[in-house]
């Protein structure tokens, strides 16, 4: 990394566009795939950071040379796996906070639940975070050194996600016939 180039920290949130599918260990399969790709790409771009996913929302911190961070954020805006990208915080930094992580997956579910409860929120919704809350949540991520185990990440990547097929007109017709049968049966039973 060019030590003379200015460093920046960018914190953004986004909302997943995929239907969640978790492995038995609790790792969301789409997030595992995103994480694996991010780690590879961030290493090439000399970027670091951390990612948290909860209630269908991403909270991500990216750190590195300002031009590289901003280029990645511009690319992320066109990623179909999420939308509603919103920058919560950006600041110049003297040193990297996540220097040991190409992309850390913050294993902080309990801390996140505690934080949400303390803030009076019903669920993890970083769109509701004030600047102070954003800073506090980022500190939780920075202080936690636990990352997703490599075996859990690989298992989530290898888990086939079932394809959800749309209903056909035949499905709707069968449901209508079944509903008619149920209604007639209920009428017949009520008149007895």
Describe the structure.
It is a single chain. The protein is α+β, with helices and mostly antiparallel strands. The protein is built from six helices and five strands, in the order E-H-E-E-H-E-E-H-H-H-H. The chain has a five-stranded mixed sheet, with helices on both faces. A hairpin with a 2-residue loop joins strand 2 and strand 3 (57-65). Helix 1 (29-45) packs across helix 5 (150-158). The longest helix has 22 residues, at 169-190. It is elongated and about 85 Å long. It starts with 6 loop residues before the first strand and ends with a helix. The model has no long low-confidence stretch (mean pLDDT 87).
Give a nutshell description of this structure.
With 192 residues, the protein is an alpha+beta fold.
């Amino acid at each position: 990394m060019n030590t003379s180039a200015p460093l920046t920290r960018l914190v953004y949130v986004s909302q997943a566009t995929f239907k969640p599918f978790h492995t038995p260990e609790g790792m969301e399969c789409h997030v595992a795939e995103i994480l694996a790709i991010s780690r590879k790409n961030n290493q090439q771009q000399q970027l670091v950071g951390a990612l948290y996913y909860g209630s269908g929302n991403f909270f991500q911190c990216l750190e590195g040379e300002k031009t590289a961070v901003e280029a990645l954020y511009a690319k992320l805006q066109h990623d179909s796996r999420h939308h509603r990208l919103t920058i919560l915080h950006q600041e110049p930094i003297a040193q990297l906070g996540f220097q040991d992580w190409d992309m850390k997956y913050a294993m902080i579910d309990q801390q996140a639940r505690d934080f949400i409860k303390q803030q009076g929120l019903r669920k993890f919704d970083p769109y509701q975070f004030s600047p102070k809350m954003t800073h506090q949540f980022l500190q939780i991520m920075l202080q936690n050194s636990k990352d997703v185990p490599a075996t859990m990440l690989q298992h989530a990547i290898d888990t086939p996600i079932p394809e959800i097929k749309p209903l056909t007109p035949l499905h709707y017709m069968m449901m209508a016939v079944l509903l008619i049968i149920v209604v007639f049966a209920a009428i017949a039973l009520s008149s007895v």
